[in-house]
Each structure stands twice: as structure tokens, then as C-alpha cells.
Amino acid sequence: MSMEKEKGSIDHISSADANEVEAFQHVDEGTHHRVLRKMDWHILPFISLLYLLSFLDRANIGNARIAGMAVDVGLDGLKYNVIAAVFFIPYALAEVPSNICLKLFRPSRWIPSIMVAWGLVMTLMCLCKTYESLIIARVFLGLTEAGLFPGITFYLSLWYRRQDVARRIAIFFSAATVAGAFGGLLAYGIEHMEGIGGLHGWQWIFCLEGILTVVVAIISYFYMHDYPETATFLSTSERQIVVQMLKDDKLGQATHFEYKYVWQAMLDYKTYVQIAIYMGLLVPVYAVALFTPTIVKELGYNAVYAQLLTIPPFVAGCICTLVVGYYSDKLNLRGPFVIGGATVSMIGYIILISQSRAGVSYFGAILCAVGVYPTIAVDLAWSGSMAGGDICKGVTLAMVIGIGNLGGVASSFIYIHGPRFFSGHGACIGFLSVSVIGSAFAMWDYNRLNKKHIAICERDGIDESQNEKYVDAGNSSPLFRFPL
């Protein structure tokens, strides 16, 4: 990518004149796809790397636990669970303010800055030698890392149309599954640094992964682009095509900041339906990330092989995330894919809770990851698509991700009594059931609202030429259509 940066704007979707609008209405679909592919190659690999590092840094506590941290620090009883849980409280509280800051400031400044902050926290965790110091470090890790996931999800919505965004979220979220696999492999290698520099192997896991995050964050200041109309990798005509595509997709809704759009998101009952769906999915996701090494070890494998055996579930989850994201966009459907994935994951947990044979149980663990990981990307695309206007969308996504991440607190306390972990697997089945029920309700409700909006448009003769009348209406605009 070009290292040249252009000054970003807060209202990033600039107005095209009448002649430009008319010209771009006749751009063929092949040109649209060519421009989208170009954007993909310049944006997705880089943000996927950022999220890989993010997920690696928050989940490596699970690898460190079985690498000797639990013994060296004396993590008996529920101490490990508390260390895992405290991350999510500041993480949840900071997400809405962070997304507002991303909109008010340049993404190429805000996202790298929070990366430097959490990378430093991660690096300094290698100095933690007590239970209390690990708790403090995890609190600050949650606070500094909070803005990345909702920020990148929001960032993608500023570059892609609603119908194009699910597969892009799937691509960058698949980095989480790669992080799970890579984390196990990396931990396996780093464990052999035991004693070097007076540090244990598990301390080196924190140190080296934190340093890597800081290095990538510094590079991000130069290589991250802000908005389509300031993207130096696009030609002038390509920038105009993207801007016009986004204007058409937004139906003329507001892109500037006003507090009324924040309240619009916070007072919408549909936001809380999406929060329930997301939390139901996220508890199993974090359970997979935080406890797969422990679960595999409890199946009878030693710690070294347990690190390596955590890799296949995450690889399978990565592949399925990409496939499901692609077909969700292709068919422009969200709910059925969430329900289907949650059901597959429930089957995996039923196998884990009912079987004692290691091989069968390990297959169940793979099904858990294969089912639940793809649903996250689809559900986030769904949550962003049901909000109208940039600020409303940013706040909605931050609320869904932020409050939903409080489910991580539950994930931290449900896996206590091995090797069968009845309470943990049972809780995951219950949370997945909430997502299935919530998704079914959302599909019914969105279909009802779409019919209502269509009827209003037909009755009053409303069409897209009247966009300006509904600039502040959000998803209450009769021109707005909810994806199912």
C-alpha cells in the first residue's frame, strides 16, 4: 500500500454532483466487483492481521495456564477463572466510547494507538508473578483492547455496502480461528524457552506476543487507510464509484455526528434483540478459546500434545467461517445461517457432555468450533445492517459487541469440574438456544417491519428520490429494509 496519507474527514461520504451520480448509475456489475476486489486486497489482509493479534493476546492466557502458569502463580480454586473474567468488564464498558472516537478521529490514528497500548500491557504481563498482578494486567488489557473488534467491524461498514459486508467480516473474524490454531503452535514452541532470561516459558508467551503487537501497531500508522474518498490505492474514478455505491446503500441517511443518533441506537429494542443473539453465541466462542487447551488435556493428552491438538478445531472453524460468510452475502440471508451454525455447535456440546471416549469427545470439540465461529461474522453483519446512519450503526455495533462480551464473564466461570465439564457444556447449550430463539424472533419481526414499510411507500408514493426527507429517521424510514 502507499504510505502517503490524505487528511480524513468526519463526514466521509462526500456529495457527488448530478452528472457524476447519473454516470455512476450506469457502472456495470463487473466494474463494481473489480473495485471491491481491489479494496479487499488492500484492506482485509491487514485488518485480519490486527484482529489475529488481538484475539491471540486475549486468549493466550489459556495456553499459558497449561504451560505452567497455574502452578507457578498458585492459581488454585477459581483464581484462573477470575483472571479470565476481569478482562471482559472494562472491555465491554469501553466499546461504545471507542467507536464514537473512531468516527470523530481518523481510523488510521485511533486503531494503531489502542494497539500500541494493549501491546505494551501484554508485553509487561511477562513480569507478573502473582495472582493480584495478573488481575490488574488483565483489567488494563481489556480496557486497551476494547476498541479493536467493534472498531474494525464499524470500519468495514464505512467501506462496503450492507450486502457485501458479511463475507468481509467473516474474513477478518476468521483470524480469530487462526489465532486459536497459531496460538497453540506458538505456545508449543515458546514453552521451550523455559528459564531463558530468568523467565518461565509461559511468561515468554506474553512477552513475545506483546512485542509482536507493538511492532505491527507502529507499522499500522503508515499503512492503514481512513475512508474510500481518501484511499490512495484507488484511482479518482474508482473512489467516485465506491462513494456513490455507499451513498445509494445508505439511502441518504446521516453520516455526521449528533448525540440524537447515539440515543436512536440505544433506545431501539432491536438493538437488544441483537445483543441477546450475540451474547448467546459469544459465550461458547470464548469457552472454545479459553478452555479448549484445558478440555483437550482433560481428555487424557499431556500438556505438550494438548497445545498441538487445539489446532484442528480452530482450522476447521476458520474454513467454515469463510464459506458461511460467502454464502450469507450471496443469498443475502443472516438468520438461517446463525440458527444453523448454533445448532451444529449444540450437537458438538451434546457429544461432549454425553461421551467419555477421548476420540469421540475430541470430534465434539471440533463441531463446537465449526458451528459457532461462522455465526459471529454473520450476526455482526446482521446487527450493522439493521441500523440506519453511520453513528447509529457504530453505536449499535459497539453495544452488541460490548454488552455481548459480558458473556465472556460467564464463559470464565462455567468450566470448573473436569474432565466432563457438565456445567460448562450445559451452559453453552443453553446460551446457543437463546441465539436460536432470538434469531427466529428477529427474522419474524424484520419481515413484519419490511412489509409495513413497503405498504407505507406504496400508499404514499414514496421512492428513493425522497431520501432527504428521511435523513434522520434511521431504520424507521419507510425506505429502510431489514435483512432477514
UniProtKB/TrEMBL annotation:
PROSITE patterns membership: MFS
Pfam short name (any one): MFS_1
Per UniProt, residues of the Major facilitator superfamily (MFS) profile domain are: 43-484
**Keyword terms of this UniProt record:** Membrane, Transmembrane, Transmembrane helix, Transport
What Gene Ontology molecular function terms does this protein carry? transmembrane transporter activity
Subcellular localization, as worded in the UniProt entry: Membrane
Quick one: where is this thing mainly located?
membrane
Which segments cross the bilayer? 43-61, 81-102, 114-132, 138-158, 170-190, 202-224, 275-296, 308-328, 335-354, 360-382, 394-416, 422-444
The topology of this chain with respect to the membrane is: Multi-pass membrane protein
Q: Name one GO cellular component term.
A: membrane
- On whether Transmembrane helix is a keyword of this UniProt record, the answer is yes
Q: What is this protein called?
A: MFS general substrate transporter
Organism field: Coprinellus micaceus (Glistening ink-cap mushroom)
